[in-house]
Amino acid sequence: MNTQLNILLTTKLLETCGNDSSAAIYSILPEIDKKSEELKGIYAHSINNIPTIIDEAVASFSDKRNKNPSKIINKEEIINTFTKSIFSEKNIKIPNNKTLAALGMMSHIYFDTFINPVQFFLPHSSACSGQWDLWNMIDYIKLKKELNNKQFVFELRKRLQENSIWNIKFNLEDFPPIIQRRLQKEHLLNKKLDPESLIKAMIIRLGEIAKPDINYEIIDYLIRSFFTYLNTKKYLRIDREILFLRNLEEEIKKIIKESI
Question: Is the pLDDT of residue 223 over 80?
Fold first, then answer.
């Protein structure tokens, strides 16, 4: 997606978790790939490098960085981009929460799969994650061109923002019986989505839409490694989160097909 669409979609995802929407600023970070020849266009889209980028960004945004400014994070440029999109406040309070930063970055990478193949699992796998079925149904080149059309982006953003998918309502019948019992016992059916579970669900979805297929041991290893970095030790259930993502993907694909 382009910058405006990524920020909007990340903002809506943060709202589904009941989190501060200003954390959507972290969704801009993967765009550093476009601005540096050294990064080869894939550095910030690889899960292997996300922790380094998050640490740099959190330090930069919280003004904890002392003598050595970040070589990859242009704080003022990112804030300026953010406030020119859908946020009008110049003095926004950026959360220094690594989980929310990870959700912001992961959202950008996840939504990029609608317009570009993404080598998310480098260096463990060179497989590309993408919405291949969507591209088989539309004029892919036309979509790429239209994303530079301001009116097209405006209409697309409007439809995405107003879509009923964000009013999350799960039915017990959407889940297998064993999961139904757990959701009822833990009173989870109508609760906000969990940001950590949403991150895990995104990693799994990126694996599921990768071509060629990725060995699940790689996905599982990277999930464990990434959540070790986030200092998350509990086991994360993703029943609601991954169902929501699958439904969201279908809505986005439907809107794109109808807009082209």
Answer: yes
| Among 4, 48, 214, 31, CA closest to 109 | 31
3-state SS string for 118-163: ECCCCCCCCCEECCHHHHHHCCHHHHHHHCCCHHHHHHHHHHHHCC
Query: Taking the chain, what is the end-to-end CA distance rounded to the nearest angstrom?
Result: 15
- CA-CA distance, 154 to 126, in Å (whole number)? 34
Question: What pLDDT sits at residue 92?
Answer: 77
Site of tokens 């080869």 = 40
The alpha-helical segments, DSSP class H, found in 28-139 are 32-35, 50-61, 75-85, 98-112, 132-137
Task: Please give the DSSP secondary-structure letter assigned to residue 32.
Answer: H
**Can you give the pTM of this predicted structure?**
0.93
What is the CA 171 to chain-centroid distance, rounded? 25
Collapsing DSSP states into helix, strand and coil, what is residue 210? strand
Q: Which of 246, 20, 5 is nearest to 133 (CA)?
A: 246
CA-atom Rg of the chain in angstroms: 18
**Residue 15 CB burial class (10 angstroms; 0-12, 13-18, ≥19):** middle
Q: Which amino acid is at 172?
A: L
> What is the extent of the structural domain holding 77?
3-259
pLDDT single digits (tens) 77-116: 898 888 887 665 556 788 899 999 999 999 999 999 999 9
pLDDT at 233 over 90: no
- Split into its structural domains, the chain has a count of 1
